[in-house]
Specification:
With 296 residues, the protein is an alpha/beta fold. The chain contains ten helices and nine strands. 39% of the residues are buried.
Length: 296
């Protein structure tokens, strides 16, 4: 059997999570058009009859302005250690910039085999120049691929190449396991995704979601209590909405998706609290949203 670890890196919003979802042919990771949607290292486990590939999705490499951002970048860097293959994802519409130059230095230091993936080629007329520029400025790539998740271009070819590069090895996780994150983390991420989808630019980066309680109240009913943390009272007002309309919409969309995961009816009880400057000062919140490992 072949098995191995693949780390996906790139600047914020290059489509890393969408790419991993495309490999699975289903939604495993939350996605949005907002930068820095992914805050943590998240392992997604693909298993078939002769191969197990553990994909690690990472936060985007960026210049942090908060402690949360520092931990996010650290998480991405840590994920490159000990993996078998790195996917270096570049947005075709943005090209090679400072973030990619920093990634190039990090990848070169890791001495890990690396595929260059020029993603979102549906957004440009000619991606050849972007490939040439990237390879001229960063000469670390074993292979180069072009992809578009929207148009399903290049996904199969890239995935088959990844499989062929995996070494012989054991099955690290049970065959039916899709992610190594607990159900509480998955639920919190789903709720946060719906907030990203429905709210204005002022809110997304200031939101943390923590699942406080999961209880089976009846044979076919699961009670979930979660707290949405924001930094300002104005943001709390936006998330609650007029007469509670926004939080009801967030809850409805999230509940439908959570029910598909747990296989039961879900009562989702959402609360909104203000925690000023939590991204900078409150390590407790950082721990509870799943970033304790990145601090050690």
């Amino acid at each position: 059997m072949k098995s191995g670890f693949v780390t996906v890196i790139g600047r914020p919003n290059v489509g890393k999570s969408s790419l991993v979802n495309a490999f699975f042919g289903r939604k495993v990771l939350i996605v949005s058009d907002k930068p820095q949607t992914t805050r943590n290292r998240i392992r997604c486990i693909y298993t078939d009859d002769d191969c197990q590939i553990i994909f690690t999705d990472t936060p985007g490499i960026h210049k942090p302005i908060h402690r949360l951002g520092e931990f996010m970048v650290k998480a991405a860097i840590q994920a490159m250690k000990g993996c078998d293959l790195i996917l270096f994802v570049v947005d075709a519409s943005k090209g090679y910039g400072e973030a990619e130059a920093k990634m190039c230095d990090l990848v070169r230091a890791s001495k890990t085999r690396t595929f260059l993936v020029i993603n979102k080629i549906d957004l440009v007329n000619d991606h050849v120049k972007i490939i040439e520029t990237t390879k001229n400025k960063c000469d670390i790539f074993t292979k180069t691929f072009t992809t578009s998740v929207v148009e399903n271009r290049g996904i199969f070819e890239l995935f088959e190449a990844i499989k062929s590069f995996m070494p012989e090895g054991p099955m690290y996780f049970p065959k039916d396991m899709i992610t190594d994150r607990p159900i509480s983390f998955q639920i919190a991420e789903i709720v946060r995704e719906k907030i990203l989808l429905l709210t204005r630019e002022e809110v997304p980066h200031c939101v943390a979601v923590i699942v406080d309680q999961i209880l089976e109240r009846e044979k076919n009913l699961v009670y979930v209590s979660a707290t949405i943390y924001v930094e300002r009272y104005s943001q709390k007002g936006i998330i609650i909405g007029k007469d509670g309309s926004m939080i009801k919409q967030i809850g409805t969309l999230a509940r439908i998706e959570i029910e598909s995961i747990v296989g039961k009816r879900v009562y989702l009880d959402l609360h909104v609290k203000v925690k000023k400057n939590w991204r900078d000062k409150d390590f407790i919140i950082l721990n509870e949203i799943g970033m304790k490992d990145e601090m050690e």
